[in-house]
Amino acid sequence: MRHRRFVMPVTLTLSALTLAACSGGGEPAEVADASADFGFQAEGLPIVEENLTLSFGGTKSPLAPDYATMELVQQWEQDTNITIDWQNLPDQVFQEKKNLMLASGELPDALYNTGLTDAEVVQYGSNGTLIPLEDLIEEHAPTLSAILAERPDIRAAITASDGHIYTLPSVEELGILPYPNFLFINKTWLDELGLPMPTTIDEYRDALAAFATQDPNGNGKADEIPLSFRPDSFCANPWDLITALGGQPDNNDHRIVEDGTVEFTANTDEYKAGVKALGEWYADGLIDPESFSQDDVAYLAKGKADTPVLGSFFWWELKEVVGEDRVDDYALVGVLEGTNGQRLASVTNNQEISRGKFAITRANEYPAATMRWVDRIFDPVMSAQASWGPIGVTLEENADGVLVQIPAAEGESEGERRQKVAPGGPVVTTRQDFVDVVAPEPRAAERQALVEEYYAPFQANDIYPPVMLSNDELEQINLAQADINTLVKEKFATWTVDGSIEQEWDAYTTQLDGLGIDDVTGIYQQAYDRFTAAG
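That's the Putative aldouronate transport system substrate-binding protein sequence above. Prediction below.
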């Protein structure tokens, strides 16, 4: 048995199995693969005849135990004869330690849930810390190879601009991530005031004005919060209101795609009109003054105050904001007809195809065995278990042979249970897999239905795809992008609160030009064109 805990090997055992990798200076080098020393088998199980131990690092959920204690992981060890020395840490802890780890010689054999940014993948791939995986995939990963052959878009998403694949993907195609910002309204208050469910932006504003002035909670105090949101959060953004008020589809990146063209949104006349109108709402007392300062804890508490005070808000899930007791008091608004007479649902750039779920480092003496090990997880049934937990614990087959959720124990949500029994990582569950292999979680299926009814029919723009920028592209945009994001965020808050957009707009657009917004957008267009050509 072999044991190693994040130490760089002094020598490599030679065998007939070799692969091309990059040296620290970026030049190709031959690195020996010693998988055969443990009785490596190219097919079937176990993967090695003699027990082999590999060290893995990376991130894990704060609720997750040591992966080695998970039933599914223990089954993997029995099946493969490969033991994993798991060193995965909660994300915040790992982020504090990863740079030192990657810069030193004390590397794990692989990273599982790598916690690496795109820039880090490119950096550590190009300098040889992470080895290229495409040849290993072709030789030792038949399941993943078949997926990539059928889905060139997935291959394009994980391929760096130098042509190498340094990390493996996670794919979960439910169709819900592009629409995280659900708009809810207090239906009980609407009924109390004799108001209809709003379908237009003007009707919605009228409802908020009534909430502000007509004491719908009946306590004789002007304590109602007509509308609350959190800009730049994952799911509490008011961009659909900007779209309805001005006609500009928008998202957190302020980057959209329309007809194959990458566009920056936060300097258009339509964006200006939307922000100006939202500032008028603020001046009329329709928007929570804490919208630009509150954190998630404060935001989520407002819907659960002893006296109901929250009239309308954006969030992913209703119950999380208002609690079980008030769920029936609220209703989903959906996409409002805008001032231009159109219903437009802004699409975010949240990706269902993500990178960085698994990487092999230069410290690994057994990449062939490692690739065979990880390839098993890409089987649709195994991916389902890695994502939601093992069959018999969290999943069971229904009459049609499809895996469905076993209800969680009382007092525990499916999400909490999932973190405790499923390691996640490199998985692929496609749209078709959600029909043939595993049913979505009940809460996900409910959201799918709502997206299909309320949002998807009104899609306003295309998503910017999961493009991996090159080192050169990242160097060109990083500083400018940070400054642009800061400026847009600050001005959006300022203009909403004090209504000064007309006086400051020209200076703002001039400042964006000076920061190189056209050049940054051009680089994103260049990367987009490369991605679409590859996919």
